[in-house]
Amino acid sequence: MATTIEHSEKTKAEPQLLGLLAEFDDPHALIEASKKVRDAGYSKWDTHTPFPIHGIDEAMGIKMTILPWIVACCGLTGGTIAIGMQYWMNAVDYPFLISGKPLFSIPACIPITFELSVLLSAFGAFLGMLGLNQLPKLYNPMFKSQAFRRVTNDRFFISMDAKDAKFSEIDTGEFLKSLNPLQVEEFWSDVESPKLPRPLVLALSLIGVLLIMPPALVAYKRSTTTNTPRIHIVPDMDFQPKLKTQNTTNIFSDGREVRPHIEGTIPRGQFKDDNIPFYYGLKVLPEDQDVIAINLQDEQKPAGEKPADAKPAAGAAAAAPTEDQKLAQLPWVTEFPMPVTDKMMARGKERYKIYCSVCHGLSGEGDGLVSLRAMELQQGTWIRPASYYTDNVRNQPVGRLFHTISNGVRKMPGYSAQIPPEDRWAIVLYLRALQKSHHTDAKDLSKEEMEKLRSTK
Questions:
Q1: 178 neighbors 185 (Cβ within 8 angstroms)
Q2: What is the pLDDT, as a whole number, of residue 273?
Q3: Is 185 helix (H, G, I), strand (E, B) or coil?
């Protein structure tokens, strides 16, 4: 028993001197003392004040922090990762051609590049500050000093670290006393680590369990299946009253998504009546202007019936002219109401690829990506776009083609709100070029035209 007690006493840790504390009651005295400590050549020491003191950094000889360089490196790293990630995803790993747009474009990458640069810069600033200041540090042996407790009130301290190469318990103590402090005090290491209070341990354990629950719930949901619908936290965002492509809507009683123009008004910013051929594709406006403003099939829906489910009454086709018949009787223009140029043709090709090719296809056969996907789904709601090369479409005047783009036809919506009139006419010109290219024999072309075609391939 005696041997065991003796061995325990030998192995028991002894407190070690960690440094010295010098107490001051005036910030000016602290600054003057800091200058002397700096000039004496000490490197491991610090000042402690209840509020920031102007000039203390210069008095201590603190050099410029490297934190800005850390933030700059993190920002450049984030920008590089963002650019590389978007290039890999869009141009290498999963290239997806959309309306002839480039697979990789720096302007399109700016938002994500900016966000990731700022994100990593923020992480660098926050974590770099913690690392350079050796934080978090929840406990310090100086806290045991009764005098040091006033550092948050009205006292100022200089702490000398015993790890400093120049530190000496006797010499450093005498040096601090020469600075005229209120007192000089030693602070020692703890022999035993204090135990955390039991309520704090229980609280931390509860927090740990609560932190584990969200990822555990996510993992459970990802590994299982369910027949119940997902929870809609903000239902207004998931179930907005709007008209989706190839669907019906009951937003308004007449089945339309937007309201027709009020009689006697004109669109803001332009006066269409001064150039009827350009804005309407007509030589003159008809008396019944509703024919050119809306789809007639929407007008003829019975009350209380959904637009897509509307069925004409028996004998209605013979009693009233159809939409196509009414439109065919209008005085459409047969010539373009603006000069036809190569620039207009190029513009029409560009706009066509953006707005039209997704459904009608690049060649106008009605085989766009959206159409092909809809046909694969076979949901029964999709109407395949008509080919531009059918006799019905080829024989339509340019004015009526312009009207179709502007106001839509059947389930195709109107694009007058998205495409300006100049671009709509340019698309009609390009459409005419596609039709002509499919009904022209290469033998009928001149040598100059053949050479021009070969040079454009």
A1: no
A2: 56
A3: strand
Which whole-number Å values give the CA distances from 339 to 97, 393, 435, in the listed order?
A: 32, 23, 20
Cα–Cα separations (whole angstroms), residue 389 to 214, 285, 395, 443, 452: 58, 29, 10, 20, 24
Beta pairing, strands 17-24 & 45-48: unpaired
CA 311 vs CA 246, 302, 409, 438: distances in Å: 17, 8, 17, 37
Residues 191 and 82 sit within 8 Å (Cβ to Cβ): no
pLDDT in tens, 167-191: 999 999 999 999 999 999 999 988 7
Q: pLDDT below 70 — which residues of the chain?
A: 1-13, 193-194, 266-273, 287-321, 453, 455-457
Query: For the CA atoms of the chain, what is the radius of gyration?
Result: 40
The whole-number pLDDT of residue 207 equals 96
Tokens of 84: 């590389």
Quote the Cα angle for 432-438-444, to 5°: 100
- What is the C-alpha separation between 22 and 43, in angstroms, rounded? 16
Nearest partner of 194 among 133, 134, 138, 136, judged by Cα: 138
Tokens of 373: 């996907």
At 186 the pLDDT is 94
How many residues are recorded in the chain? 457
pLDDT attached to residue 177: 95
Q: Which residue type does 41 have? A: G
Q: Are 113 and 161 in contact (CB under 8 A)?
A: no
pLDDT tens-digit profile of 340-363? 999 999 999 999 999 999 889 888
CA–CA separation, 111 vs 103, rounded Å? Answer: 16
- CA 338 remoteness from chain centre: 41
- 112 Cβ partners below 8 Å, 6+ apart? 82, 85, 86
Q: Are 129 and 79 in contact (CB under 8 A)?
A: no
CA angle 66, 140, 62 (to 5 degrees): 30
Q: Strand locations in 296-390, DSSP E?
A: none
Side chain identity at 404, as an amino acid letter?
A: T
Cα-Cα-Cα-Cα dihedral sign, residues 21, 26, 29, 31? positive
What is the Cα–Cα distance from 293 to 188, expressed in whole angstroms? 90
Whether 402 and 291 have beta carbons less than 8 Å apart is answered as no
- Residues pairing with 184 in the sheet: 22
Confidence (pTM)? 0.46
CA atoms of 175 and 179, how far apart (whole Å): 7
